[in-house]
Amino acid sequence: MNREEAIRVTRHGAIAAVVSGTLSLVYVLLAMALDAQGDFAFLNDPYALVDSALLFILAFGVYKKSRYAALLLVGNFLVSKLLLIVERKGISTGALLLSLMFLYFYVKALQGCFAYKALEKQENPNYKKRSKWFYFAGLPVTAVIVVVVAILLIDYITITPSTQVQTARQVASRDTHALVANDILLEDERFDYFYSFSTDPMAEGGVLLTNDRLLMYLLDDVKEGYDVYGIPFDEVSDIELMRAGDEQTTSLYRVSSIDGFWLQFSLATQGQGDDDFIDYLKTQAINLSVN
Fold first, then answer.
1. Running DSSP on this structure, what letter comes out for residue 268?
2. CA distance 175 to 258
3. b/e string for 234-254 if b means 16 or more Cβ within 10 A?
4. Among the three residues 135, 156, 177, which one is the final residue of a domain in this structure?
5. Domain range spanning residue 277?
6. Among positive and negative, which fits the CA dihedral 201, 191, 207, 220?
7. pLDDT digits (tens, 9 = 90+) for 147-188
Protein backbone atom coordinates (compact mmCIF):
# COMPACT_ATOMS: atom_id res chain seq x y z
CA MET A 1 0.00 0.00 0.00
CA ASN A 2 1.52 3.34 -1.06
CA ARG A 3 1.16 6.68 0.71
CA GLU A 4 -1.72 7.95 -1.44
CA GLU A 5 -3.74 4.77 -0.96
CA ALA A 6 -3.06 4.80 2.80
CA ILE A 7 -4.31 8.38 3.05
CA ARG A 8 -7.35 7.53 0.95
CA VAL A 9 -8.49 4.49 2.94
CA THR A 10 -7.94 6.22 6.31
CA ARG A 11 -10.00 9.17 5.09
CA HIS A 12 -12.76 6.81 3.93
CA GLY A 13 -12.68 5.03 7.29
CA ALA A 14 -12.99 8.33 9.14
CA ILE A 15 -15.93 9.35 6.96
CA ALA A 16 -17.62 5.98 7.57
CA ALA A 17 -17.23 6.46 11.34
CA VAL A 18 -18.74 9.97 11.12
CA VAL A 19 -21.67 8.62 9.08
CA SER A 20 -22.21 5.80 11.58
CA GLY A 21 -21.98 8.18 14.53
CA THR A 22 -24.42 10.61 12.91
CA LEU A 23 -26.96 7.88 12.12
CA SER A 24 -26.64 6.51 15.64
CA LEU A 25 -27.13 9.98 17.13
CA VAL A 26 -30.23 10.66 15.01
CA TYR A 27 -31.80 7.28 15.85
CA VAL A 28 -31.13 7.68 19.57
CA LEU A 29 -32.51 11.23 19.72
CA LEU A 30 -35.64 10.13 17.82
CA ALA A 31 -36.10 7.10 20.07
CA MET A 32 -35.76 9.23 23.20
CA ALA A 33 -38.06 11.95 21.85
CA LEU A 34 -40.75 9.41 20.90
CA ASP A 35 -40.17 7.25 24.00
CA ALA A 36 -39.64 4.23 21.74
CA GLN A 37 -40.59 0.81 23.07
CA GLY A 38 -40.45 -2.75 21.77
CA ASP A 39 -37.85 -3.41 19.07
CA PHE A 40 -36.44 0.12 19.39
CA ALA A 41 -36.39 0.33 23.18
CA PHE A 42 -32.63 -0.35 23.24
CA LEU A 43 -32.11 3.02 21.48
CA ASN A 44 -34.24 4.84 24.04
CA ASP A 45 -31.41 5.19 26.52
CA PRO A 46 -28.90 7.99 27.27
CA TYR A 47 -26.10 5.39 27.31
CA ALA A 48 -26.55 5.09 23.54
CA LEU A 49 -25.19 8.63 23.19
CA VAL A 50 -21.84 7.41 24.56
CA ASP A 51 -21.36 5.18 21.52
CA SER A 52 -22.14 8.07 19.16
CA ALA A 53 -19.66 10.37 20.91
CA LEU A 54 -16.99 7.67 20.85
CA LEU A 55 -17.43 7.19 17.10
CA PHE A 56 -16.84 10.89 16.44
CA ILE A 57 -13.71 10.89 18.61
CA LEU A 58 -12.32 7.77 16.94
CA ALA A 59 -13.15 9.18 13.49
CA PHE A 60 -10.92 12.17 14.22
CA GLY A 61 -8.16 9.86 15.46
CA VAL A 62 -8.32 7.76 12.29
CA TYR A 63 -8.26 10.91 10.16
CA LYS A 64 -5.01 11.84 11.96
CA LYS A 65 -3.64 8.36 11.06
CA SER A 66 -3.70 7.08 14.69
CA ARG A 67 -3.21 3.32 14.76
CA TYR A 68 -4.69 3.09 18.24
CA ALA A 69 -7.80 4.99 17.23
CA ALA A 70 -8.19 2.63 14.27
CA LEU A 71 -7.75 -0.41 16.53
CA LEU A 72 -10.33 0.94 18.97
CA LEU A 73 -12.71 1.69 16.11
CA VAL A 74 -12.58 -1.89 14.81
CA GLY A 75 -12.71 -3.36 18.33
CA ASN A 76 -15.64 -1.17 19.39
CA PHE A 77 -17.54 -2.08 16.23
CA LEU A 78 -17.04 -5.84 16.62
CA VAL A 79 -17.90 -5.88 20.34
CA SER A 80 -21.00 -3.70 19.97
CA LYS A 81 -22.34 -5.71 17.02
CA LEU A 82 -21.67 -9.05 18.72
CA LEU A 83 -23.46 -7.98 21.89
CA LEU A 84 -26.36 -6.57 19.91
CA ILE A 85 -26.72 -9.78 17.88
CA VAL A 86 -26.77 -11.83 21.08
CA GLU A 87 -29.28 -9.48 22.72
CA ARG A 88 -31.57 -9.40 19.66
CA LYS A 89 -31.03 -13.12 19.01
CA GLY A 90 -30.00 -12.60 15.41
CA ILE A 91 -29.56 -9.96 12.73
CA SER A 92 -31.48 -9.17 9.57
CA THR A 93 -29.89 -9.58 6.13
CA GLY A 94 -29.98 -5.84 5.50
CA ALA A 95 -28.37 -5.02 8.84
CA LEU A 96 -25.72 -7.69 8.24
CA LEU A 97 -24.79 -6.28 4.82
CA LEU A 98 -24.64 -2.73 6.22
CA SER A 99 -22.46 -3.90 9.11
CA LEU A 100 -20.08 -5.71 6.75
CA MET A 101 -19.79 -2.55 4.64
CA PHE A 102 -18.79 -0.44 7.66
CA LEU A 103 -16.44 -3.18 8.85
CA TYR A 104 -14.72 -3.15 5.44
CA PHE A 105 -14.02 0.58 5.66
CA TYR A 106 -12.82 0.29 9.27
CA VAL A 107 -10.45 -2.60 8.55
CA LYS A 108 -9.05 -0.86 5.46
CA ALA A 109 -8.53 2.28 7.56
CA LEU A 110 -6.67 0.19 10.14
CA GLN A 111 -4.41 -1.19 7.40
CA GLY A 112 -3.92 2.32 6.06
CA CYS A 113 -2.88 3.72 9.44
CA PHE A 114 -0.23 1.03 9.92
CA ALA A 115 0.95 1.36 6.31
CA TYR A 116 1.21 5.15 6.62
CA LYS A 117 3.32 4.92 9.77
CA ALA A 118 5.57 2.29 8.17
CA LEU A 119 6.11 4.53 5.14
CA GLU A 120 6.85 7.47 7.43
CA LYS A 121 9.65 5.46 9.06
CA GLN A 122 11.12 4.48 5.69
CA GLU A 123 10.92 7.87 4.01
CA ASN A 124 11.66 10.19 6.89
CA PRO A 125 15.13 9.75 8.45
CA ASN A 126 14.13 12.13 11.25
CA TYR A 127 11.06 10.11 12.15
CA LYS A 128 10.73 10.20 15.91
CA LYS A 129 9.88 6.91 17.54
CA ARG A 130 7.49 6.84 20.43
CA SER A 131 9.08 6.87 23.85
CA LYS A 132 8.92 3.83 26.09
CA TRP A 133 6.67 5.82 28.41
CA PHE A 134 3.99 5.76 25.71
CA TYR A 135 3.92 1.98 25.78
CA PHE A 136 3.98 1.83 29.56
CA ALA A 137 1.21 4.42 29.93
CA GLY A 138 -0.60 4.64 26.60
CA LEU A 139 -1.29 0.95 26.08
CA PRO A 140 -2.78 0.38 29.57
CA VAL A 141 -4.96 3.47 29.10
CA THR A 142 -6.14 2.08 25.76
CA ALA A 143 -6.94 -1.25 27.40
CA VAL A 144 -8.93 0.54 30.13
CA ILE A 145 -10.90 2.44 27.50
CA VAL A 146 -11.76 -0.81 25.71
CA VAL A 147 -12.94 -2.40 28.99
CA VAL A 148 -15.03 0.66 29.93
CA VAL A 149 -16.64 0.77 26.48
CA ALA A 150 -17.46 -2.95 26.70
CA ILE A 151 -19.05 -2.48 30.13
CA LEU A 152 -21.11 0.49 28.90
CA LEU A 153 -22.24 -1.47 25.86
CA ILE A 154 -23.22 -4.46 27.97
CA ASP A 155 -25.18 -2.22 30.29
CA TYR A 156 -26.60 -0.27 27.35
CA ILE A 157 -28.26 -3.30 25.74
CA THR A 158 -28.79 -4.97 29.11
CA ILE A 159 -27.38 -8.29 27.99
CA THR A 160 -26.64 -8.88 31.69
CA PRO A 161 -29.99 -9.35 33.44
CA SER A 162 -30.67 -6.79 36.16
CA THR A 163 -31.64 -7.86 39.66
CA GLN A 164 -32.86 -4.34 40.41
CA VAL A 165 -36.16 -2.62 39.82
CA GLN A 166 -36.02 -1.42 36.20
CA THR A 167 -37.77 1.27 34.23
CA ALA A 168 -39.22 0.29 30.86
CA ARG A 169 -36.28 1.72 28.93
CA GLN A 170 -33.83 -0.38 30.97
CA VAL A 171 -35.55 -3.69 30.16
CA ALA A 172 -34.02 -5.66 27.29
CA SER A 173 -36.28 -5.95 24.25
CA ARG A 174 -35.93 -9.75 24.37
CA ASP A 175 -37.48 -9.75 27.87
CA THR A 176 -40.37 -7.54 26.75
CA HIS A 177 -40.96 -9.89 23.82
CA ALA A 178 -40.94 -12.88 26.20
CA LEU A 179 -43.57 -11.24 28.42
CA VAL A 180 -45.83 -10.71 25.42
CA ALA A 181 -45.17 -14.16 23.93
CA ASN A 182 -46.14 -15.83 27.21
CA ASP A 183 -49.42 -13.87 27.44
CA ILE A 184 -48.27 -11.91 30.47
CA LEU A 185 -48.41 -8.54 28.73
CA LEU A 186 -50.86 -7.59 26.01
CA GLU A 187 -49.27 -6.67 22.69
CA ASP A 188 -50.36 -3.02 22.96
CA GLU A 189 -49.78 -2.79 26.72
CA ARG A 190 -46.98 -0.58 27.99
CA PHE A 191 -45.28 -0.69 31.36
CA ASP A 192 -43.30 1.80 33.41
CA TYR A 193 -41.59 -0.35 36.08
CA PHE A 194 -40.52 -3.99 36.18
CA TYR A 195 -38.92 -6.28 38.73
CA SER A 196 -37.97 -9.91 38.15
CA PHE A 197 -37.79 -12.33 41.07
CA SER A 198 -34.70 -13.93 39.50
CA THR A 199 -31.94 -12.95 37.06
CA ASP A 200 -33.93 -14.65 34.29
CA PRO A 201 -37.31 -12.85 34.06
CA MET A 202 -39.03 -16.02 32.89
CA ALA A 203 -37.50 -18.43 35.44
CA GLU A 204 -39.73 -17.64 38.43
CA GLY A 205 -41.90 -14.59 37.94
CA GLY A 206 -42.02 -10.86 38.42
CA VAL A 207 -44.11 -7.77 38.99
CA LEU A 208 -44.88 -4.81 36.71
CA LEU A 209 -46.63 -1.48 36.74
CA THR A 210 -48.36 -1.13 33.37
CA ASN A 211 -50.25 1.86 32.05
CA ASP A 212 -53.36 0.91 34.05
CA ARG A 213 -52.66 -1.90 36.53
CA LEU A 214 -50.34 -3.66 38.94
CA LEU A 215 -49.46 -7.00 37.40
CA MET A 216 -47.73 -10.03 38.92
CA TYR A 217 -46.91 -13.32 37.21
CA LEU A 218 -45.58 -16.60 38.61
CA LEU A 219 -44.24 -19.69 36.85
CA ASP A 220 -46.53 -22.71 37.17
CA ASP A 221 -44.43 -25.84 36.64
CA VAL A 222 -47.49 -28.07 36.55
CA LYS A 223 -49.26 -26.18 33.79
CA GLU A 224 -45.92 -25.30 32.15
CA GLY A 225 -47.05 -21.72 31.89
CA TYR A 226 -47.58 -18.62 33.99
CA ASP A 227 -50.28 -17.58 36.41
CA VAL A 228 -50.99 -13.88 35.90
CA TYR A 229 -52.66 -11.67 38.51
CA GLY A 230 -53.55 -8.01 38.31
CA ILE A 231 -55.14 -5.15 40.21
CA PRO A 232 -56.30 -2.09 38.22
CA PHE A 233 -54.90 1.14 39.63
CA ASP A 234 -58.37 2.52 40.35
CA GLU A 235 -59.12 -0.54 42.52
CA VAL A 236 -56.02 -0.33 44.75
CA SER A 237 -57.18 0.41 48.32
CA ASP A 238 -54.12 -0.28 50.45
CA ILE A 239 -50.33 -0.59 50.20
CA GLU A 240 -48.62 -2.17 53.18
CA LEU A 241 -44.88 -2.55 53.81
CA MET A 242 -44.58 -6.04 55.32
CA ARG A 243 -40.79 -6.06 55.64
CA ALA A 244 -38.26 -3.30 55.06
CA GLY A 245 -35.31 -4.45 52.98
CA ASP A 246 -31.64 -3.53 53.02
CA GLU A 247 -28.60 -4.13 50.82
CA GLN A 248 -28.81 -7.88 51.41
CA THR A 249 -32.58 -8.48 51.52
CA THR A 250 -35.58 -7.37 49.49
CA SER A 251 -38.51 -5.31 50.74
CA LEU A 252 -41.85 -7.11 50.98
CA TYR A 253 -45.11 -5.36 50.09
CA ARG A 254 -48.79 -6.29 50.12
CA VAL A 255 -51.16 -4.42 47.81
CA SER A 256 -54.91 -4.87 48.39
CA SER A 257 -57.90 -4.07 46.19
CA ILE A 258 -61.27 -2.62 47.20
CA ASP A 259 -62.89 -6.07 46.85
CA GLY A 260 -60.47 -7.77 49.26
CA PHE A 261 -58.09 -9.32 46.72
CA TRP A 262 -54.39 -8.77 47.44
CA LEU A 263 -50.97 -9.39 45.95
CA GLN A 264 -47.77 -9.82 47.96
CA PHE A 265 -44.40 -9.41 46.31
CA SER A 266 -40.77 -8.49 46.95
CA LEU A 267 -38.76 -5.60 45.50
CA ALA A 268 -34.99 -5.06 45.47
CA THR A 269 -33.76 -1.98 47.32
CA GLN A 270 -30.71 -1.16 45.15
CA GLY A 271 -30.82 2.39 43.86
CA GLN A 272 -34.01 2.95 45.88
CA GLY A 273 -35.82 1.00 43.18
CA ASP A 274 -38.42 -0.29 45.63
CA ASP A 275 -39.27 3.27 46.68
CA ASP A 276 -39.56 4.42 43.06
CA PHE A 277 -41.84 1.48 42.23
CA ILE A 278 -44.16 2.06 45.19
CA ASP A 279 -44.14 5.86 44.82
CA TYR A 280 -45.25 5.51 41.22
CA LEU A 281 -47.99 3.08 42.24
CA LYS A 282 -49.21 5.58 44.84
CA THR A 283 -49.49 8.31 42.21
CA GLN A 284 -51.70 6.08 40.05
CA ALA A 285 -54.02 4.74 42.77
CA ILE A 286 -57.03 6.95 43.52
CA ASN A 287 -58.72 4.96 46.31
CA LEU A 288 -55.68 4.48 48.48
CA SER A 289 -54.92 4.42 52.19
CA VAL A 290 -51.20 3.80 52.85
CA ASN A 291 -49.77 1.99 55.87
1. -
2. 31
3. ebbbbbeeeeebeeeebbbbe
4. 156
5. 166-290
6. negative
7. 666 655 555 555 445 678 988 877 877 788 889 888 899 888
